[in-house]
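ligand=adenosine-5'-triphosphate
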Amino acid sequence: MAAISLQQVRKFYDNGFHAVRDFSLDIGDGEFVVFVGPSGCGKSTTLRMIAGLEDISDGLLRIGGTVVNDMEPKQRDIAMVFQSYALYPHMTVRQNMGFALRLDGVPKAAIAERVDEAARMLQLDHLLERRPKELSGGQRQRVALGRAIVRKPQAFLMDEPLSNLDAKLRVEMRASILKLHRQLGVTTVYVTHDQVEAMTMGDRIVVMKGGEIQQVASPMELYDRPVNVFVGGFIGSPAMSFLEGELRGGSVAGDGYTVRLPAGMAARLAAWPGRAVKLGVRPEIFSLDPTAGEALNAVVDVVEPLGAETIVSLRVGSGSVVARLDGHVKLVPEQPATLYLDAERLHVFDAASEANIG
Ligand code: ATP
């Protein structure tokens, strides 16, 4: 096991494209860190630099305290798990899992022992003599994980390993990977574009955009204290809504609404009267109960009943919000509705810099 440290790491591709800018991060020994961000934000490039599959243009990469910038992938003692399982079709599960060990010259008996142990952990023991084509997608992905585990590496690097699985299997495999991490305690870096996967799996999450880290924090910290509009909007489902407005003596006022801010927040923002802001509202801070807080007059747009809850999109002046309400609410599209919101849970972002200033 090993800590991984990136210090001002950058990546310029040959065409001059700056894919990763000044990436600095210390990943603790045994930590499970998730890189998340939209397509093209540089998360795979960063992972591939850690793996040694991509040259580092600038900065320092340390694994277990050793600078490994110029070290071959093989020497880095890490195991990578990809989206495509890349199993050898003509080999059995046992042979696939033991293949890397065989290449390394590990004695046969030791290979068998390690493969059996990994197979037990992954509940593959009864499938060891099958070939990949005789397995389901989830089982294949387990074999790919097994192949990584048997090597007993210092770290696991996983690049969207669950993307090829259907939704139900993804949830199951998420749990399997986390259990494995608890059992083995191996430092893991996991790349995904799925914020739910990031939230449920990471000890810490690194949110990236345009080759840059936006925020590094625990899942709930990210949710409760997003540093900017991007993180606020990216983490959470349904997403945070934003209403444009301006600061006006302890309130935020915009087209069709005025919301009084809690005293502490109002005091923090008192220095900027008239400042253009974006009010960040999460779906769950709304209620139809008039005692629940600040009133917001809206017009119902779309009503999506999900059983336990109903997701409602509404127009507020020229803006819009999404509310998560009780499963049995009776709201009708195109009819007016008054929502009440818990102002303590609002976020105020500066409209120009998009930084969280509330
Ligand atoms: P995705 O989720 O789509 O895989 P990502 O966040 O993992 O996205 P990367 O694959 O790291 O993104 O790519 C980051 C940026 O670098 C993208 O804009 C991509 O087009 C660019 N890029 C990737 N590989 C190369 C390359 N070999 N040459 C030039 N540009 C590249």
